[in-house]
Amino acid sequence: MNEIVGFLMEHGALVVFATVLAEQIGLPVPAVPFLVAAGALAAAGHLNLAVAAGAAVLASLAGDQVWFELGRRRGRQVLGWLCRIAIEPDSCIRRTEDFFSRHGARSLIVAKFIPGLSTIAPPLAGIVGLRLSQFLLFNGVGTILWVGSGLGLGYLFADQLERVLALSASVGPTIGMLAVGAAAGYVAWRVLSRYRGDDPVPHVTPRVVREKLRAGERPVIVDLRPLGARREKAGIPGALPMSADEIVAGQRDLPRDRDVILYCDCPGDAGSIAIARVLRSKGHARVWPLAGGIEAWRAMDVEERETERASASHPMVA
Question: Is residue 53 domain-resident?
Fold first, then answer.
């Protein structure tokens, strides 16, 4: 925190603008400590509170507007980009879209206070077709509340922060190293868990599922995509729309004598794999993530239609 305060005293509102903008575009830069420190400096007369607030609000709105426009123009591809760099991609899209589906535009007011939702909410608003005026209104209110709370916290508790800074001057390096080590260890564990090669969950291909259906088998096919994704694009005919929480809570009702096929539209089938691993740990041995998810199923459909058209155009001559 000492370094943050010193940096702010030297560069002022420019630092506030840069850190807030960096966080809003998805970089791992925590802006809240800078807002709190800026509020404390404003209370001590070292920084203009209005200028700091204006810089933070402007930076946040600028970053959010970029993501909103990308969501409108590029669709769900943008969420794929964001979740590929997330530590827990299996929950990245699903939780955010479920929250947005329940609360609509109002979710933008609290989005910045919820880890994981802040960066994803603006492009999601563009994807679902939220009007620009609504986005500017609700996101603007949320941004002002977020910036105000950070600056206000530092401003109101400036005296306590000074005592904390004085204490941290003596024990800060040790505490800092311990905190950094713990954070690095947690991140490393999550990343290794994401990419580990042990205990792989076997997949089933779309073609195998299609053959099972044509053979008269009755696999239970579960659509794990959020409501917004299901509204945007149709899924596999006959699939049951369920959230991850619903299928885990109702796992006792899943048949154990039939295949259960899970599919999503997450990068690397992460959501389906995570749920399949949970269900298999509870004794459901016939649970399979669909390899490639809904996109692989659609690609198979396109390929089969093209093959049928080619066969019709060039019939076999006996």
Answer: yes
Q: What is the pLDDT of residues 39-65, one digit of tens each?
A: 888 888 888 899 999 999 999 999 999
Helices 158-195 and 2-11 cross at an angle (nearest 10°) of 110
pTM: 0.63
Same domain, 51 and 190: yes
- For residues 168 and 166, give the distance between their C-alpha atoms in angstroms, rounded to a whole number: 5
The neighbouring-strand residues paired with 290 are 204
CA distances from 216 to 11, 38, 220, 303 (A): 70, 66, 13, 22
Domain boundary among 195, 229, 253: 195
Contact 280, 287 (CB under 8 A): yes
Q: Residue count of the chain, please give it.
A: 318
In 10 A of CB 127, how many CB atoms? 24
In a domain, 74, yes or no: yes
What are the two backbone dihedrals, phi and then psi, of residue 290, each rounded to the nearest 5 degrees?
-80, 120
H or E stretch covering 223 = strand 220-223
Query: Which pLDDT value is given to residue 136?
Result: 95
